[in-house]
Design brief:
The chain is built from 3 helices and 12 strands. It is an alpha+beta fold and 249 residues long. The longest helix has 50 residues.
Length: 249
């Protein structure tokens, strides 16, 4: 009588199956983790782009955060009641400070003082100088947190390769034109007097790259490109940037 062969798998076959299954599972985990990381970093960049674009919109549309308990005289904002129409201040724009190796962007308001006998025949650049813009360091400061804690990794102003971390968006007193001023700000809170900044032509209307990296520091940085254009179209995010595009002197 012939023996009956038992159906089933050998120990070698089972071991091989488990090994292949473990390998496929590991590959799936690695692939899923990489995909999540990419999606999160894309969200970080797109959200930052939308935030900066929003600042342009608010400046052009004249969004005024004035509080009823604030008063402004000669470009100085303080607490106190003020009758409507008695202020010589003009809300002119915003200052964005990108903090190195941090996921926070600090945004301050900029006000100017209307000079006596101002001539609207002057250029936008000269009018901004005439209004002597100042940063309001203590009132209505907004701190924006880049999603997923992507952080500022480098800054570079094209043309002269200066490592600027400050972006001042200032609207002309006679039009909806927004001029950009980029420079390096080391003080915290930032220096209030912007007159030395706006009178320096090297700071005015230059394209600048503000770069961010993923929270884990891995992969290529993304660069937020701000061009000297008066609308939100000036702001564009680009991924897979190189370090040389991000690090100014």
């Amino acid at each position: 009588m012939k023996g009956v062969r038992q159906a089933g798998f050998t120990i070698v076959e089972i071991s091989l199956f488990l090994a292949i299954s473990a390998l496929l599972f590991t590959i799936a985990l690695v692939g899923t983790g990489s995909t999540i990381r990419t999606v999160r970093f894309s969200d970080s960049g797109r959200s930052l782009e939308a935030y900066v674009q929003k600042q342009y919109d608010e400046i052009i549309n004249g969004v005024n955060p004035h509080l009823s308990g604030d008063t402004c005289t000669a470009g100085v904002v303080s607490s106190g009641a003020q009758a409507p129409g008695t202020s010589d201040c003009l809300l002119m724009g915003k200052l964005l400070i990108f903090n190195q190796n941090d996921f926070k962007v600090s945004t301050y308001y900029i006000v100017g003082t209307e000079p006596a006998n101002v001539s609207l025949a002057e250029s936008d650049e000269q009018l901004i100088i005439d209004y002597a813009p100042k940063v309001i360091p203590a009132n209505n400061v907004n701190v924006y947190e880049i999603p997923w804690q992507a952080y500022a990794s480098g800054f570079k102003r094209l043309g002269d390769n200066v490592g600027t971390n400050a972006l001042a968006l200032i609207r002309s007193p006679k039009s909806t034109r927004v001029l950009t001023f980029t420079y390096k700000e080391l003080a915290s809170p930032p220096t209030a007097n912007l007159l030395p900044i706006v009178t320096n032509a090297a700071n005015r209307n230059k394209t600048v790259n503000f770069c961010i990296k993923n929270a884990d520091g891995q992969g290529s940085p993304a660069k937020l490109v701000v061009a000297p254009t008066s609308t939100q179209n000036a702001v564009q995010i680009s991924f897979d940037a190189s370090d040389t595009e991000c690090n100014g002197a």
